[in-house]
């Protein structure tokens, strides 16, 4: 099967286009990447020394010894099936329990989830609002989890961006059902977000792990080349068991903000505005740590609140949990996040099946021409994302 798939990779592309891409990949692109890797290799010792001189590198075994925490991971996804007459929309989040020793009691023998699905009239901004619902569900699952350590996919600032985009669009499309749903639930979404950002509990910790990041808190501090982000360089520099000193998240050029549209109820609008101000004001308390748990893994970027990062016992528990859950080279992130990602990313793939069920149900009950159904439910494309 693998050989057949490889043979068909370029079947539908013009031969001249394939030849040009392959030639450029083999010559120019490979040479550029080789030069970049050689530069990192040649300067690795210098950059390691800079980390030590600026007191930015730590070793996990100098932290207090702790028992491995119970863990879970949450991730979300959304999808829109664009049909001829309407849109099918769905947003959901899944939380999965981490690896648990046989002697421990499992909190969640099965994954937990939250889901929203409906039909919508056509509109280009549906995806922005749906994304806000998705991230809100992730935060609710994470905040309500009974585990000591909860992993979140993406950055701790991602919900701010998604909520701002979603609420900015709501004012222009109040007739959409997903807009109504977001406005009804935005308060509880923000409360979960605020709790995660400001928690000072000694028995519950939330950590975000962005897979892709361009941030350079350490690189800018040490004047490293701007062409490299921190995670890329630190993956080559940090030794197994090393982590970086917790640093504040780099502030954006403009202050963090979440737009609050008119909600019709002045009291509710004031409450949400106050909550938004608390959330955006708490983003300055985010701390960033890079940690290399195993030789087969890159440096992981961990974002957490100040109370967790700047208390050694709590940070030790977080790093112990990360190491315990990174059990295989096949998974480039902690196990529960990997499983949650695998599960929820199948949601868009299931959209054609949902459409087929709708078509079949309507065909059995519709009293008009059945061609109306098959024409009206013709799918043009499926849009999806996180």
Please characterize this protein's 3D structure:
The protein is α+β, with helices and mostly antiparallel strands. The protein contains 13 helices and eleven strands. The protein has one domain (61-348): archaeoglobus fulgidus dsm 4304 fold (2-Layer Sandwich), CATH 3.30.2170. α4 runs antiparallel to α5. The longest helix has 39 residues, at 15-53. It is globular and about 75 Å long. Mean pLDDT is 88; it is low at 1-5.
Brief synopsis:
With 386 residues, this protein is an alpha+beta fold. It is built from 13 helices and eleven strands. The strands form three sheets. Strands 2, 3, 4, 5, 6 and 11 form a six-stranded mixed β-sheet that branches. The protein has a three-stranded antiparallel β-sheet with strand order 8-9-10. Strands 1-7 form a two-stranded antiparallel ribbon.
Structural topology:
Blueprint: H1 2-7, H2 15-53, E1 57-59, E2 71-83, E3 87-97, E4 112-120, H3 126-144, E5 149-153, H4 158-170, H5 177-198, E6 205-209, H6 217-221, H7 230-237, E7 242-244, E8 247-248, H8 266-282, E9 286-291, E10 300-305, H9 306-309, H10 312-325, H11 335-344, H12 351-365, H13 370-376, E11 379-385
Parallel strand pairs: 2-5, 5-6
Antiparallel strand pairs: 1-7, 2-3, 2-11, 3-4, 8-9, 9-10
Features:
386 residues; alpha+beta; archaeoglobus fulgidus dsm 4304 fold; six-stranded mixed beta sheet; three-stranded antiparallel beta sheet; 11 strands; 18% strand; globular
């Amino acid at each position: 099967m693998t050989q057949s798939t490889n043979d068909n990779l370029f079947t539908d592309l013009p031969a001249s286009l394939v030849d040009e891409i392959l030639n450029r990949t083999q010559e120019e692109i490979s040479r550029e990447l080789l030069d970049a890797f050689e530069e990192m290799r040649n300067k690795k010792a210098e950059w390691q020394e800079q980390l030590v001189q600026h007191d930015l590198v730590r070793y996990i075994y100098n932290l207090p010894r702790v028992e491995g925490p119970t863990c879970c991971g949450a991730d979300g996804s959304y999808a829109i099936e664009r049909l001829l007459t309407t849109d099918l929309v769905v947003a959901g989040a899944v939380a999965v329990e981490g690896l648990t020793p046989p002697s421990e009691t499992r909190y969640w023998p099965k994954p937990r989830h939250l889901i929203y699905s409906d039909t919508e009239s056509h509109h280009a901004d549906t995806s922005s609002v749906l994304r806000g619902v998705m991230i809100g569900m992730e935060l609710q699952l994470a905040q309500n989890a009974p585990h000591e350590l909860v992993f979140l996919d993406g950055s701790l600032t991602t919900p701010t961006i998604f909520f701002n985009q979603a609420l900015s669009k709501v004012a222009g499309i109040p007739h959409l059902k997903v807009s109504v749903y977001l406005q009804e639930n935005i308060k509880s979404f923000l409360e979960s977000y605020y709790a995660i950002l400001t928690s000072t509990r000694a028995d519950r910790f939330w950590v975000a792990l962005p897979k892709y990041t361009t941030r350079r808190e350490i690189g800018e501090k040490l004047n490293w080349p701007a062409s490299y982000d921190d995670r890329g360089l630190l993956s080559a520099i940090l030794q197994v068991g090393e982590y970086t000193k917790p640093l504040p998240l780099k502030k954006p050029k403009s202050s963090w903000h979440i737009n609050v549209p008119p909600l019709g109820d002045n009291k509710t609008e004031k409450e949400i505005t106050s909550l938004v101000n608390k959330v955006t004001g708490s983003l300055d308390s985010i701390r960033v740590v890079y940690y290399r748990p195993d030789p087969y893994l890159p440096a992981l970027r961990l974002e957490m609140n100040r109370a967790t990062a700047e208390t050694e016992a709590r940070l030790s528990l977080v790093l112990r949990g990360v190491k315990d859950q990174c059990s295989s080279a096949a998974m480039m992130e902690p196990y529960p996040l990997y499983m949650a990602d695998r599960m929820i990313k199948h949601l868009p793939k299931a959209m054609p099946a949902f459409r087929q069920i709708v078509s079949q149900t309507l065909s059995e009950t519709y009293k008009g021409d059945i061609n109306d159904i098959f024409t009206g439910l013709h799918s043009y494309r499926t849009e999806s994302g996180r």
